From TrEMBL:
Mapped WD repeat ranges: 181-220, 358-393
The entry's keywords: WD repeat
Pfam families named in the record: WD40
Protein name: Uncharacterized protein
Family annotation (Gene3D superfamilies): YVTN repeat-like/Quinoprotein amine dehydrogenase
Residue ranges, compositional bias (Low complexity): 7-39
Matches recorded under SUPFAM superfamilies: WD40 repeat-like
Source superkingdom: Eukaryota
Region (Disordered): 1-39
Length: 421
């Protein structure tokens, strides 16, 4: 990209999220003759140009949307990053594939009754969870110009045929109604992938374990007393967040045996009678964070063997429910029913300190994904909302200070936030 403002300034090409350097067209221009911070960062992604101001009046307090992607017929319910693609799904059953870096719609696919509640990707497969209590498996066909083709649904027909004749394989789901234990009896709300397995959580309060290699259901766990809203897996532990106000940790009794069943390792207690809507964990599995319906973000520290957890932070993050969260390095992002996204820096003790707030959505923020690739001293954040839009943000990493919001009603509640170090 040419620099008309400073012809002598060197040009540094950065890799855009999810793309190799050979296809990257993102650049940032700075001057090596001026040691002061640049007045602005200018990005160019093919035919889209953005400029993020770093003026004294604005600084890093303001976050502007780099792009607003519209096309869903319903509220955006979940997101996933897959190679050079962004996948977004909605309550209107449709799944849209956006290609980077031009952020144009690449293709659209979807099938089934009811909205798409969750999606995960692994290799060339995409797993989508639906309101009709089924999981659909899609495969990217390179021979058909990257068409996403439906290859199976869970439970598979083979799994059904192997179990439907035996009465012991049926469980009571409600009065006078039984189902095979491999079936979910209500909407599947969340999915997680780890070590060759797919985990599904449902409003039917159960956690099911599926083997990716043959798509067989291995386990069904009566996990909670209310709907399961969130799942995450790390370091051999699966965490399930529920409307019963608890996050439960599940692990295998014998890590050396792939077929060993999962058992309860611990319970992370949230606020009494307050739903926990999402759960995330750091890459090393050491820290676990949960977002609740009373607007709090809570954090726990696990011991070395992941056999017990202690609470390390409890922060009033939003005025309304925290619906989703994501982690990228030392930063935690929280999306809320109050239509805002909180940007938090994680401290060494596990506490979180707010460094910014993003506003722009016209509806509750339902899902978040962040790219770990560094772009211009920041990272790319993707947010989906009930306003039917997907927004793309560039978030600067400014670790030198926290953001002071003017006349924010959140300040009074944050003063009472508990951080245990």
């Amino acid at each position: 990209m040419s620099n008309s403002m400073n012809p002598s300034a060197p040009e540094t090409t950065l890799s855009t999220p999810l793309l190799s350097s050979s296809t990257s067209s993102t650049s940032i221009t700075t001057s090596d003759t001026d040691e002061s911070p640049p007045s602005s960062y200018r990005f160019e992604l093919q035919n889209l140009k953005y400029q993020i101001s770093n003026s004294p009046n604005c600084g890093f307090n303001s976050y502007r949307s780099l792009a607003v992607l519209s096309g869903h017929i319903g509220a955006v319910s979940c997101l996933a990053l897959c190679g050079e693609f962004i996948l977004s799904a909605s309550q209107g059953k449709d799944i849209i594939v956006w290609q980077q870096p031009d952020l144009k719609q690449f293709t659209k696919f979807g099938q089934g009754d009811g909205s798409v509640k969750a999606l995960v990707t692994i290799g060339n497969k995409v797993f989508t969870a639906h309101q009709d209590s089924r999981i659909r498996v899609w495969k990217v066909s390179r021979r058909s110009e990257n068409v996403f083709r439906l290859v199976d649904s869970l439970p598979t027909t083979k799994d059904y045929l192997g179990k439907f004749m035996k009465q012991s394989n049926y469980v009571q789901t409600r009065r006078h109604h039984k189902r095979l234990w491999i079936e979910h009896a209500d909407s599947i709300s969340c999915l997680a992938v780890y070590n060759g397995l797919v985990y599904s959580g449902s409003w039917d309060k159960t956690l099911k374990v599926w083997r990716i290699s043959d798509l067989k259901c291995l386990e069904s766990i009566k996990a909670h007393d209310d709907a399961i809203n969130g799942l995450v897996a790390s370091k051999g532990i699966v965490y399930s967040a529920s409307a019963d106000g608890k996050i439960k940790a599940w692990g295998k009794g014998n890590e050396g045996k792939t077929n060993s069943p999962h058992s309860l390792k611990g319970i992370l207690e949230g606020h009494k009678d307050v739903s926990l809507n999402s759960v995330i964990t750091t890459e090393d599995g050491k820290w676990v964070y949960g977002g609740s319906s009373d607007g709090f973000v809570m954090g726990w520290l696990g011991d070395e063997g992941f056999d017990s957890w202690k609470i390390v932070c409890e922060v009033k993050a939003h005025q309304m429910a925290v619906l989703c969260m994501c982690l990228v390095g030392d930063y935690l992002c929280s999306g809320s029913a109050d239509k805002s996204i909180g940007i938090w820096r994680r401290e060494g003790c596990g506490g979180i300190c707010r460094v910014g707030v993003i506003r722009g959505h016209e509806g509750p923020v339902k899902c978040l994904q962040a790219s770990g690739n560094s772009v211009g001293g920041g990272f790319m954040l993707y947010s989906g909302s009930l306003d039917k839009s997907l927004r793309v943000w560039w978030v600067p990493k400014d670790s030198s200070k926290t953001v002071e919001e003017e006349a924010s009603p959140l300040q009074s509640t944050e003063k009472n936030a508990m951080v245990v170090c």
